[in-house]
Design goal:
The chain is 45% helix and 12% strand. With 492 residues, the chain is an alpha/beta fold. Helix 17 packs across helix 18. The structure holds zinc ion (ZN).
Length: 492
């Protein structure tokens, strides 16, 4: 059998559609993931040893369908950034032939290190090995921003620089056997910080290199590399824009580029979405009186629908990944709009929001009020209020705050996830207030609780057998703001 390599790799198989909802499977390198599915974010460099802890602790409970997303910007120790975080560990990545071997190595390193481990008598069980599909995001916004600022990429030399960046990125992903990668690009949105606007060369550079023209050149170089080298690597093309028209034009331009080059990406990734609260309601045709949550969901759905419709026109089944903006609240709308895979950093960010002071305040309201009066910042880690339990039934008691994040000191909601079945809320709070290691442990348990909710929602969507069942599911939700918002964005 001839294995297709490089230019028309297929990783996604559409199994059926419930209206606009797609049920499918991703198969890469002997791994398989039912979709829709979620990618937990985890940057070895960025998260320091917390990631080691995550990987170890997840083994205790893990029965997750989540896959894993990492970031080249933090991992590439040869980049101009020089490693900033857990560099000793990250430097070892090149010794491993396979990213999953590196993951195993990280776990063992952590387990044999001292003084570690919040859990007494914890034994590593290799049979519980989590073998996620691993997607590498380029973080190229950060990489290019640095190069533009330092004038290493200029109008004069960019073609050669682009070629170098694309090659280095492929070399790294191939060497470490990632399963999928997001192609290099540069979205200009939210790039310029206040102080940077005076640096005119930098501003001009950002404008030039975030243009569609330059980004399409980068995508062309990516396709050229795929044609010449035929790497066994699934590449997703990133899509961005500032208005519905721009998104439509950009996806069409990419499809046209693929035709010209006779080479295809494995799928698409919608990224650089910015803050939905800052969008112009008129451009995006958001109805008057929409609240912030409705507005954000409609904005994300609109973009996804534009991309999906352009693909549908060509009977093109390729998957769409939502890069970084799939908050739990928007997950159902995004699946409804025809998206397949998702990542979002808020589950991790909210679980690690807790600062040292907050440990004193979880059980002590008076101390919290005292700090508040003194103007001392107290920031708590946050748990996601679940919509579904592990049997995929709606938890009616939680309806006031479905899929919102709530501070650990005020959190008192029902959950039936693998974490909450094993650790009582009070126990979790005590761990959170404990020593450094116990606090880390609690935060990771919170993170796992948060991401399991993504799993359950995706699984629920996959379990519905037709469009009517989906509609019934939404209609049978307990009366709540969440239901009202969902009805508005999905069915009106
Ligand atoms: Zn839970």
């Amino acid at each position: 059998m001839v294995i297709l390599r490089g230019c028309d790799l297929k990783m996604y198989k559409l199994i059926r559609k419930n209206g606009s909802i797609r049920i499918g499977v991703i198969q890469i390198n002997g791994k398989s993931a039912e979709a829709p599915c979620f990618f937990a974010t985890s940057d070895f460099g960025g998260g320091g040893t917390n990631v080691s802890r995550l990987l170890v602790y997840s083994d205790i409970f893990i029965n997750t369908n989540s896959q894993l997303l990492m970031n080249y910007y933090y991992l590439d120790i040869n980049s101009d950034l020089s490693p900033r975080f857990d560099t000793k560990l990250v430097k070892e990545i090149l010794k491993f032939k396979d990213i999953n071997q590196f993951i195993q190595h990280i776990k063992k390193t952590y387990l044999f290190s001292e003084p570690k481990k919040a859990i007494v008598n914890f034994k590593y069980d290799g049979s519980k090995e989590w073998r996620p599909v691993v997607l590498l995001d380029s973080g190229s916004g950060n990489i290019l921003r640095g190069k533009i600022k330092r004038k290493e990429i200029t109008h004069e030399n960019y073609k050669a620089e682009y070629q170098k960046i694309v090659k280095e990125y492929f070399d790294f992903s191939i060497l470490n056997k990632f399963d999928m990668i997001i192609a290099i690009d540069f979205a200009g949105k939210n790039t310029l910080k206040a102080g940077e606007k005076n640096d005119q060369d930098y501003v001009a550079g950002v404008v030039e290199f975030s243009s569609n023209e330059r980004n399409l050149e980068l995508l062309k170089l990516t396709l050229d590399f795929m044609k010449d080298n035929k790497p066994n690597m699934h590449v997703l093309a990133p899509i961005h824009g500032n208005s519905p028209d721009e998104y439509e034009k950009y996806i069409k331009d990419i499809l046209e580029l693929e035709r010209k080059e006779n080479c295809k990406f494995s799928g698409f990734a919608i990224g650089g979405l910015g803050n939905p609260n800052k969008i112009n309601k008129d451009i995006w045709a958001i109805p008057e009186g929409s609240n912030a949550k409705v507005k954000a969901a409609l904005y994300l759905m609109k973009i996804s629908s534009i991309v999906r419709a352009s693909l549908d026109d060509l009977n093109d089944d390729r998957p769409i990944h939502i890069l970084g903006s799939a908050s739990p609240y928007n997950l159902i709308p995004l699946i409804f709009a025809g998206c397949d895979t998702f990542d979002c950093h808020s589950a991790w960010r909210r679980s690690s929001d807790g600062n040292e002071r907050s440990k004193e305040c979880v059980f002590d309201k008076i101390q919290f009020e005292k700090y508040d009066l003194e103007g001392v910042t107290v920031s708590f880690s946050k748990l996601l209020v679940p919509l579904l339990n592990s049997n995929l039934d709606v938890i009616e008691e939680n309806k006031e705050k479905f899929l919102e994040f709530v501070n650990i000191n005020n959190y008192e909601y029902q959950c039936g996830c693998a974490i909450c079945k094993n650790i009582k809320l009070d126990e979790l709070k005590k761990l959170y207030c404990g020593n450094k290691e116990e606090n880390y442990y609690a935060k990771i348990l919170i993170y796992l609780h948060n991401i399991l909710q993504y799993d359950y929602i995706c699984e629920k969507m996959r379990s519905l057998s037709n469009e009517n069942e989906f509609k019934n599911f939404i209609e049978s939700l307990p009366e709540s703001q969440f239901k009202e918002n969902m009805m508005r964005v999905l069915f009106s």
